[in-house]
Amino acid sequence: MGRAVITARLTAVTWYSRGNYTMTEVSFPDVVLYAIPGFVAFVFLEIVLWKAGRKNPFGKTVRFNTKDAAASLAMGGGNVVVGLIFGGAIAATYGFLYQFRMFEMPITWWMIAIVFVVDDFLYYVFHRLAHEHRWFWASHIVHHSSQHYNLTTALRQTWTGFFAGSFLFSAPMLLVGVHPAVIGFVGGINLVYQFWIHTEAIDRFPRWVEAVMNTPAHHRVHHATNPDYLDSNYAGVFIVWDRMFGTFVDERKDEPPRYGIVRNLGTFNPLKIAVHEWLGIFNDVRKAKSLRDVWGYTFGPPGWSPDGSRRTSAMIKQAWAEEQAKQDQTTSPAAAE
Q1: Is 233 in contact with 249 (CB distance < 8 Å)?
Q2: pTM
Q3: Is residue 251 within 8 Å of 236, Cβ to Cβ?
């Protein structure tokens, strides 16, 4: 998920047209607001299923952690508040950029459908970069900080997306003439879609669905810290992006996901969850000995260090692959001879 709720707050906003600054108004329903009762209902349904002893796709009975769920809900509530505070600034930025559009895109159902697909691709780009560069990861890590995987995890959203600048990834659509309110509308639909895939209550769908759409099975892999699952399945709605760009990893029944982050926080304090990685960047930069170190600590991959003493996800995956290769050699028929 990881997309701040503020994206959906760009609906029903008044904008100024380029040139003559005449007033134009475009309005769409706030799909996130309308979906909130459904979020609550499905969270309670999932709790009922676990209390009734329903097992997850890996044959285990899931235990619902109240403190963790409360922390996730607090993060979600804080995200809504942050959206109300900074939504105006984002709307103003989008309005400013929209003045320099090269074309005038019509607001029709087919154009909105095209924008929805383009927006989902841009989400893939943002989401991938958010895992590859610490500046964006400092905001996005919040969504991965739970060691549990249920529908409340979907609501564990960042409070600092505005400062990370994640909303600017939609700028290319503004410049080609997509109305800001349309971007807000499709972003809201994307956000609502990603809610239901944060669950272990659903196993798999028919093969054709799993081939095209992002599903709980695919997204469980994304939230896992297992070395072979790291840095994969960045999709929002359409898993085809991961299949196209080589970041797709299928879920295996013999490899249940271990959720969380490489170094788990050990706290349910919402404020610490919200800012811990930003504080980490600050402390590292403060001790940096060169501009190269400052850049690496700020924009390098999460886990980067000048001397390689910390481990990035690429290093973790490489070490795991080398260990697997050694095990394969020792268990191969040739080795047995």
Answers
A1: yes
A2: 0.90
A3: no
